[in-house]
Design goal:
homotetramer; about 375 residues; alpha+beta; 9 helices
């Protein structure tokens, strides 16, 4: 389905970095979910560049809800949210039109679209499109909160600096929700910012790892095999161009361990089935087991750097050099966090709607 | 779509470990693809347990093609392949029906299906279903080979022993295709087998990492955002219950690197655009760039171990102990490899059919 | 999705008329639905040819359930039902391989599959595939009955003879469920059989109109626009090659009437909202209004006739004549009725599962 | 997929009659298709009310293309077209909020959305949404024309007045493309307008039958069973709330005929396989046979009439009366014609893209 993701709750993305607008249509959300423009604006603010560690292309991200919301609540019909592109600066890109920026989708877009693609600023492959994903995700995040399901991500690692792991998941998520730079250990956060600023100084960039947790999800969510929870969430996450890896629970860390070490032993916590340890990340056989769902994403260093790089001219089919101008992020990991939360929320809304029906997330009758 | 995966070429899985059969329906493959029963049997043999490092439940995996093949070639209509379950031994499971085997889907299946699930041997969540996936994948793998596209996986790491990385991808894939225990360095392979055998001896198990490469794929394959190549392949891979992580290219390894290190610089190789290095795993913006597609999967240690483990009785909602009997694998990584190849092949057939149409993979007019 | 139909409850068909078997996979049905092999056999009997008014190719239609049913109930995982082809007689077809039987899919299959299609007896386009649809539909019909939703079809018209219309829908459906030749007025039925027998005598065939009613469906089922109830049901019905028209309620009959005549006026029947008249066929804006859902299907005369017909040889691209041999139906309408019920049931199960979730149709917790 | 239709080329609709805008996202169209704003405007003009035979709510239908078009051509990425709602008059609807307008979706929307629906002017179920469908369809229609495939619909019957049938399909389609009131026989058209005007005078409304033809389509398009051409087109057509019946070729007209009469005999026309007669409407087994695809839609009389009607108050659950005010169409059939063309075009683009791949409809490499 190309730019559409989901079965019962689905999102469709559109837009180019330097076109009139980016936007999203969310279909299948229950009627009666409160839609708070301030919360959406707040989520967009979490995605927006800020300070010395981000691009100087700062946009207001004024969004407009064109449909699907009436009297402050979802109607149950498709919600279209549009975010006009305002601060675009197209002349930065025209000179380098046929030069493949290393790590970017310029050349692959050309191979796919034969030159008809809007090449300015990455076009449809631009991270700009995640602004629409974030606005849409905000509605999903709010819907889940209404059912006691909370999602939070922190920068687990950035430029070699590590944050502490999740401990009290519920409380950690609560704390993260207000932070612009999402770390659990603020000292680590300051070091990360310094690393990013230093990379920016050199005209270089850094990447990192995001760790995400979901709490409040009941056991038994997810479908067998192809629409299992891991497949659905990973499908969504890998849609973000900068994400190159996804692992649930211990993931790659314990592949060398023994089964006796890896297995999460079940025990009762009052009347609730829980596990000691969470190496499976809250998911067995692709279906939630009632423990927090935990996963990590590898975010590659942002490919836009100011150093001169070897490349090719794909019109002329010859070697070339490229030196980027314009305004670029030395890191996107602190901005990507809210995008990951959004994708997670949309994925979960979809699986929950499959399990419990159209109305479950909403205001009911 | 639950047990169905793919858009233009899609596969539907069915079956339970101890039911009459497992099977798959592949729909959308081009007409005119040769279907060689021996090749399918060979692929199934690669998945079958063998020696001291596997379960003693060895099945012949006699498959029957019920539809979609005529005069040795695909017709273009759905191919149903059925593999009867022969060597099943259901009494092993009845005593422990309400005890959640740690790391397995028993409890999550119960939470989802309320006790109606076929609990014997993992039921529909059993790795047994991957036999059907392997048979179906064999048809897809053969179709891709007909177009010069080759897939191979090796055990990159198992129980702490590492194989060498891919070097000459085309040649390495060729070599791997004949090996029952898929390593590039046979000495490493022997050490891995020893580690697996030692774990078996202790009643324990090991996991590992599979590395997969695809060569021959043209640039420009994959759809933007949600049906991009990474999303589609990862979606398929995470359907395998034992896979807990997927990373493309350098993935998690270089998240602490600078962009100037991570970026794959483009250059011309004759008239072909290539990159120096392949940290992006052959994919930019979700679309193939013409380099080998390379990714790794984290395969968790198989959860069936013979040590006594704490668990719960989910009927009685009380703590319990479990001691597995029956026949189990001390490792599945050497068997999972052909499953990963199959999923990759089905994913690529789908994306190629979307791009080039129904007939491209087949015999043409 | 080609041979797959449905979103939350979906069916995948496979098989060729003269291949090893036809079959279906039904995915997404709730766990805990009783599966009665006798009921499935009974539904297949309703589809089976009989007497002088049908083909002499009579098959036992022995079906086998390969998965998804355990202890007599659905598990919630995919149900694969296979019906082996037994009484096939492939030599009847070989001589006429490149002659397009008028009204059949021989030529269009060739245009699509380039000659790789299994041409024997219509191959994958054969009505034989509807045996699998019927077996699958039986499970869906039983599930709906468990929730008080009943479906029935009668031969509204055949060869110029008309049956009476539905009156007491619930009672009429009950009566029809036991009839092999589904008419509400048995005298009309005898006349229809005579017309069919007379056509058979001449080596000719007849068609007709099926009228279907559903009672017990709550108001509010169906999705807006593209997954509305009319679209979903019609999509399914038009998959049957012989069905060339579908109309809901008054459909084409009252297109020349005024709005004041067509409109169904609402009124209260106790605490229930009902309409006087049902020109809209129980559906407004694509969503059920609580009245019986009523629609009609145009079934074209079966194209297999014994008269010599002009045609082309599509290998040689020249004019030719064809004279069919083999065993053919002079009418399929009395057999198609249970196929229409099956498609309707599968469509409704899908829409109900979307609305009320996975478990609603089943045994619950 | 609720408000999304299509597999490879798909459209997503959003918007409410009295919300900020209606719109559509078309995804999967090939890169390089010319997008002519004047042609889109012309198609919208064909849908716009005019003269005495339409509502006085006339809107400019100023559309804005937010994405997917660059330098006047499709890029291959999603095209979002938005049409702001300008001439809305919401006070007309507030008094009658809980009164079910007969024939409308007010009550069914309430049953589905529990009162959260935007009830003004039919909300998301309003015919207003077809403006977006028309704009999107215009792009698809233009793409098909570029490949020699033409679509045209005429008012076959309205208020008892009949137009002549298609004769020279290609020429008839050409003539229709410029007509605001789409009839082949202008005298019949004048009589129809008189009938509509007379109904308007009485505060009543009329319906009719649209007949559509497609020429230039190659043989072999359509998928077997569920994504066959009839299923796909009918699925799309039935999404229009006013369409209550769809028939291909002779449809219901010849259900009482013999097979020997109904069958379309094949013959050669030079090197092309054609049929004498076209009772199958250009489709056999759901796949195009190279003849014109012909079908008819039953358009019910528009339910908005000015006569006092019995109804219910669905808040109070009691009988009531309703007398509509506001601005309504005495007929929509002349406006629906371009909607039918649009749906047909989108359906065909989807099936052609499945068959021939992403690039076929576009500018190529």
């Amino acid at each position: 389905m190309k730019n559409t993701f989901g079965t019962n709750v689905c999102i469709t993305l559109f837009g180019e970095s330097h076109g009139p607008a980016v936007g999203a249509v969310i279909d299948g959300l229950a009627p009666g979910i409160e839609v708070d423009p301030e919360f959406i604006a707040g989520q967009l603010k979490h995605r927006r560049p800020f300070g010395k560690i981000s691009t100087s292309r700062v946009e207001e991200d004024c969004f407009e809800i064109l449909s699907g919301v009436f009297n402050g609540k979802t109607t149950g019909t498709p919600i279209c949210i549009v975010i006009p592109n305002e601060n675009k600066n197209s002349r930065d890109y025209s000179e380098t039109r046929s030069l493949a920026r290393p790590g970017h989708a310029d050349y692959t877009a050309y191979a796919k679209y034969h030159g008809y693609e809007d090449y300015r600023g990455g076009g449809h492959f631009s991270g700009r499109v995640t602004a629409a994903l974030t606005a849409a995700g905000a509605v999903a995040i709010a819907a889940l909160r209404g059912k006691g399901i909370f999602i939070g991500s922190h920068i687990s690692s950035c430029g070699g600096v590590k944050d502490r792991a999740f401990e009290d998941v519920g409380e950690d998520i609560r704390v993260l929700s207000d932070k612009l730079f999402a770390v659990l250990d603020d000292d680590a956060g300051e070091k990360m910012k310094a690393v990013i600023a230093a990379a920016a100084e050199e005209g270089d960039s850094v990447g990192g790892v995001l760790e995400t947790a979901v709490c409040g999800l009941p056991a038994g969510i997810g479908e067998p095999w192809f629409d299992n929870m891991e497949s659905v969430i990973a499908h969504g996450l890998f849609s973000v161009p900068g994400i190159k890896g996804v692992q649930f629970g211990a993931g790659f860390d314990l592949t060398d361990a023994k089964g006796s070490v890896f297995n999460d032993l079940y025990c009762m916590d009052g009347s609730k089935v829980v596990t000691r340890g969470n190496n499976n990340g809250g998911i067995n056989g692709g279906i939630s087991n009632g423990m927090p769902v935990v996963f990590r994403c590898a975010v590659k260093p942002t490919p836009s750097i100011y150093k001169k790089q070897d490349t090719v001219d794909f019109f002329e089919k010859k070697d070339a050099e490229i030196e980027l101008k314009g305004r670029h992020d030395p890191a996107i990991i602190h901005r990507a966090r809210v995008v990951v939360d959004s994708i997670t929320a949309l994925s979960l809304c979809d699986l929950l709607a499959q399990r419990f029906g159209t109305d479950w997330l909403g205001g009911g009758i």
